Amino acid sequence: MAEARKTDPRGQGRCEDLTQTTGLTFRRIEDRPDALGESPVWDAEAGCLWWIDGVAGVLHRRDAEGRVFDYRMNGHIGAIALAEDGNLVIALDHRVVLYDPEVRAEKHLLVLEGADPAMRLNDAKLDRQGRFLCAGMGRGGEPLGQLHQVDGACRHRVLAEGLHIGNGICFSPEGDVLYFADTPARKVFACDYDPATGASGPARLHIDTAPLEAGIDGATVDRAGNLWGALIRTGEIGCFSPQGTLITRIPAPVDLPSSLAFGGADMTTLFVTSIRDSGTGRAVSTHPDGGKLFAIDGLWAKGIAEARFRMDPPS
């Protein structure tokens, strides 16, 4: 059984409210810090939030009653996504697995045979049809990352190459535009994407975040098509229009926000993971709440429920 610990379902009590911007409420909803908190995913059907501590190799699930369950994996976790029947798809170092948390069993979907040891899989997201996309990164920031796609028949293709730290994967509401970031390059790319086939067109520069003095780590898209990204080096969350124009920046509750996901009953709460110590020396928080999980309420945006990965039936 998974280890469980009880926290208050609204983040009250020991998790005080932190109001830092007019009209917004920041809540710390998990007191125990992660070394590398990442990849929040809201399960709209179960009413629970999943996220990870990548360095520790731990999955977390926070249920509707505020209980948090931990699941330990073998390896560095890059990212997770929902799958059918309560399962998850997980990127681990050089492989992608389908994981059943009830019995702690995993099935390989992709193994990158002969992969460079200096590379690992990092950020991931499902497209609107449930294909799993995962970006790689150089462990030392080398341009070794590729953007991988795996479907329910375990078919694999590479959509982009040469990423230093691949991040920020997300899709337009209709699923016809794919976004991804190269964090140290401080660029977000967009490419046309065929929802029916998963084919993608050439990548084009969508957002240059160099003038903001930050790169985007994790990202998500709201129902209006705006892209929300964690601006990791300035301790902010940025919102960009479908045309790539900056709409607003709001202060994050910590100095190193890492990833974002809309969720809650009406999909208007923005969950924010953060970093305490990434293990590389490149990202070490000086904030007392570094590595903790937060929720932001009062935004004018509404999120989109995530798809689920589904294995194709045997032929």
Relevant terms:
315 residues; mainly beta; 5-stranded antiparallel β-sheet; 48% strand; globular
Write the H/E string, N to C: EEEEEEEEEEEEEEEEEEEEEEEEEE
The main pleated sheet reads as: 5 strands, antiparallel
Q: Tell me the number of strands.
A: 26
Give unreliable regions as ranges.
3-20
Return the average pLDDT rounded to an integer.
Answer: 92
Radius of gyration: 18 Å
Beta-strand percent range: over 45%
Task: Give the termini distance in whole angstroms.
Answer: 34 Å
Spatial shape: globular
Helix fraction, binned, reads: under 10%
Main β-sheet, spatial strand arrangement? 1-7-6-5-4
Number of H/I helices = 0
- Overall structural class, as computed from helix and strand content, comes to mainly beta
